[in-house]
Amino acid sequence: MNGLDRRDFRILTELVADARASQVELAGKIGLSPTACARRIHQLEEAGIIRGYRADLDLPMLGLVTTVMVTITLEKQSEDFLAAFEAAVARCPDVITCHLMSGTDDYHLQVVARDIADFERIHKQHLSRMPGVARIHSSFAMREVVRRAIPETALPR
């Protein structure tokens, strides 16, 4: 897909707001026929711009009330150490996000747990056993203030 036009960005904006909207609903909001809208969505999916559709779950309603921000420092920053750590963290079901960082810490993770005791289990059974870990620092989130799928300024109106 060469370049995105205004209608492509409108489709993306509408899907971020409501990924369950029908193609007829989307087409009406954007000013396209349902067929043209479906074709554009398919092109956005094929280009990898739309990677999937997910449910936005209320984690506390599922009993996951503790969000922990974890910074990890590895013993070494060699390709082998990075690859081994990343493979291990990808297998840890309690990790919501993991980012390779610049600066003093190598990785930032977001972990969700039922409570502090559950996080202790995650720490003992998973985080502290990951290969190459030299230091783990954990901070507990008190509450979520903002959550966006994408910055509002990223998609032109």
Class computed from helices, strands and strand pairing: alpha+beta
> By CATH's scheme, which homologous superfamily of the largest domain applies?
Lrp/AsnC effector binding domain/regulation of amino acid metabolism (RAM) domain
What is the terminal-to-terminal distance?
20 Å
The counted number of beta strands is 4
Cα shape: elongated
How many domain units? Answer: 2
Helix content: 25-40%
Q: Strand-and-helix sequence, N→C? A: HHHEHEEHE
Q: Calculate the mean pLDDT score and round it.
A: 92
Order of adjacent strands in the largest pleated sheet: 2-3-1-4
CATH class type of the largest domain: Alpha Beta
Would you give the CATH topology of the largest domain? Alpha-Beta Plaits
So how many helices?
Answer: 5
Radius of gyration based on Cα positions: 20 Å
Low-pLDDT segments, ≥5 res: none
Assigned CATH architecture of the largest domain: 2-Layer Sandwich
Strand content: 15-25%
Keyword list:
four-stranded antiparallel β-sheet, alpha+beta, 5 helices, Arc Repressor Mutant, subunit A, Alpha-Beta Plaits, 157 residues, 4 strands
Write the layout of secondary structure elements.
Elements: H1 6-17, H2 23-30, H3 34-46, E1 66-74, H4 79-90, E2 95-100, E3 107-113, H5 116-125, E4 133-140
Antiparallel strand pairs: 1-3, 1-4, 2-3
